[in-house]
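ESCALATION

Customer reports they have been waiting on this structure for their group meeting. Please prioritize. Original submission:
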Amino acid sequence: MKPAKVANGMLLVENILDKQIVDLNGRKLVRVNDVRLVRLNQGTYPLAVDIGIEGLLRRLDVSQPIKKFLSLFRINIPAKFILWEDVQAIDFSNLNIKLSKSYAKLNTLHPSDLADILEDLGKSTSMTVFTSLDEEQAADVLEEMESHAQVHILENLPVDKAADVLEKMPADEVADILDELEDEKAEMLLNEMDSESSQEVRELLEYDENEVGSIMTTDYISYREGVTVDEVLRDLRNRKPEPDELYNLCVTKENDELLGTFGLRDLIIADPGLKLSQIMNPEPVFLRDEQKTGAIAEIVSKYDLLAVPVVDEKNQLHGMVVIDDVVEDLIGERKTKSRR
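Update from on-call: job pushed to the front of the queue and completed.
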């Protein structure tokens, strides 16, 4: 925001003071407690916004006596400013403001930090910021948001735009979100998504919520037993998979029947010319898709696994239960219970 001449003090009071801005360094929302002005020959201009305690005390006209008292104990009140040029409007309808000259700076935040910030913003402003993200980042941020915030976003996005974002997300995450929506809305989104993504989500939604299949991810990596170690390594370099997809790698037959599993360590220490049949664990630990979720903890604890393959009654591979997702579900349940 370019330096603005102060023509009417009330504009600063109404539009800037007590408004929230995003502190990129602290990765959180902060409140504008005061505005620092500079007087030049051409007029008076805002120089910076004060987000520190000193600014609030100054507005209450108690800054000097409190600072003098604290100085007796050699305590200083730290000042914290954000330059006016780094402040820009997000939503001109309510004149909220944010830190940075463009949304590009918000994009540098980790998706979980940005998700927290959007949840703290007003509903209108959070939608404005969310719709400014590209589909990939929007999907990452939506995945990190609390369920109530996810529902708000999807209910206010156009169906085609919402479907585009959901297509970028893991099927199990989409299934969890759609499970929170009204059936009619969920069906609209599924119909709008591409057929492959939609079918994966529908299959997950068929499981009861206490079955292993309901929390498995369909994003896993598998190879045939005749593939060599070198071929797998070259394939992984090209794929650039997500970290949790590398927790446990599978070997399957052409009909997707699970034959074995192997890990990154197995690949790294093996001779490049060896076939997967020579390095895999031929008796892999797995879960049945219709097992109760209570079986997960015992399996993970007993075998110290980060991910467990999920198969059906014919031993065909359908997905993977990732320990990260299990922990997130447990944390989510505790948060929900604490709000009740």
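Sent to customer with the following note: The first helix runs from residue 9 to 15.
Escalation resolved.
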